[in-house]
Amino acid sequence: MPDPAHGSDQRGWAVRILPILLFSDNWLSRAGIFLVTSATVFWLWMFGIGSSAGGYIGIIQFVLLPAVFFLGLGLIPAGVALDRRMRGNIPAATFSWKSEAAKKLLIFVGTATVLNVLLGATFSYRAVTYMEGNEFCGTACHSVMSPEFTAYKATASHSKVECVACHVGNGAANFIEAKVNGTRQLFLILTGGYQRPILPPIDRMHAAKDTCGNCHSYMAESPGKLKIKSKFTDEGQLTKTALVMKVGGAKSGKGIHGAHLGTGVSIRYAAATADRSTFAWVSSTKGGATVEYFAPGIKKDSIVGMKQREMSCLDCHNRPSHQFELPAAAVDKAMLDGSIPTSLPGIKKVALDLLAKQYSEPEKAIAAALQSRYKQPVELAAKTMAAIYTRNVYPQMNITWGTYPNHIGHTDSPGCFRCHGSDLTVSNGKQIAQDCSSCHQVLAVDEAAPKILEDLGTGQ
């Protein structure tokens, strides 16, 4: 029998659909239900696509749809609250918390809450996982990050290292800081206010011991490393230079690492240029004694307003994962592996001349120029040279040859000579040591067939 006091006269289909009616009896809650349902359906439909289909699909699946889902969840109770305020409380005779309708409502709300928590947690986990992945870092903002992502994939030594391992670091604090900074970067991308080219984030990178130190140790003693550099003359003759690099270690205080990072050693500097290719001031502390070196025209008072930095691994190894090539080295490498045939007379000089130009369609223009000169099949050479050009030159980002110098060594950029050059001196004219044998032992220089390599049995 009906029990009006407890509202049990609401039987059958009316009782069963009461929860839905309660949450959808206003336009705002209906919109929320629509958003939650649509986001869930589309997310499930796109499941597994985002990470393989590129950055934009991933943004939709793992960022936009979860945002829509949570927005919808918020709109549902907001609509109910607004509707209650506009209509007043539901009469006790119509609805009672002791009624069967109330039980149905509680079951519905409880079940929906559990499902929404599970879905929300899945959304959040997948979104975080996606935003921590290399594809998101490299493809979500194509025009901006394409140069760095292309260089990252081409850098064999670190192409398998996750972007976040160096650029985010460990722990919740680093994660939050990275996402806050990412929000600022997203705004700059949307407004077109980002730098062209993007400056290396050397001052925003985490300490080398917290990133590089997870895999490498400058403290450990490293034996001498044989370095062989192959290059071709303009006439196409292969020559080789062989060096033994005295890497050493900070713990022993020997070699390159020992001289710069050893116990009791502290080197500070102030860069004169944004790319840190020139130093205005260097301070070297060893054994408790400090010596300061100044560039011409720089006085002690001049460095007060300059940004000073403690030298670390990243000041020399500044392009560990994003190495851009220079034309000569790239052409030498291609000639060595045969992708630019050495049988083409004078091909190195021709290649360097062609790579120095600007192109909108590199392969087509380079192929036409090579065909005009050699009158023979040049497809492989043209394709290789065009690939070298397109992975190193990005006019839309103002990136050209040498925009991002690699400071290791001193052949492709000032590198070591930023300190060990002739510009930095103390008041009495003394310069920082330039003894070549401190860092490497030269075994052969530009020789066609270095005997030392044959004796060592390197097979090179």
Provide a descriptive summary of the structure in words.
It is a single chain. The chain has 460 residues and is of the alpha+beta class. Among the domains are: 4-131, no CATH class; 327-390, no CATH class. It has helices at residues 12-24, 27-45, 50-53, 55-87, 100-131, 134-139, 142-154, 163-167, 172-191, 255-261, 313-316, 327-337, 347-355, 362-374, 379-390, 417-420, 451-456; strands spanning 225-232, 238-245, 266-271, 279-286, 289-294, 308-310, 440-447. Helix 12 (327-337) packs across helix 13 (347-355). It starts with 11 loop residues before the first helix and ends with a helix.
Provide a compact summary of the structure:
The protein is an alpha+beta fold and 460 residues long.
List its salient traits.
460 residues; alpha+beta; 4-stranded antiparallel sheet; 3-stranded antiparallel sheet; 17 helices; 10% strand; disordered N terminus
Our count of helices gives 17
* Element string (H = helix, E = strand): HHHHHHHHHEEHEEEEHHHHHHEH
Indicate the structural class.
alpha+beta
Q: Biggest sheet, in brief? A: 4 strands, antiparallel
Strand order, sheet with most strands: 5-4-3-6
Q: Report the principal-axis shape.
A: globular
Evaluate the radius of gyration: 32 Å
Q: Report how far the terminal alpha carbons are from each other.
A: 98 Å
Strand content: 5-15%
Residues in helices, as a percent range: 40-55%
What is the overall pLDDT average? 80
Number of beta strands: 7
Low-confidence stretches: 1-11
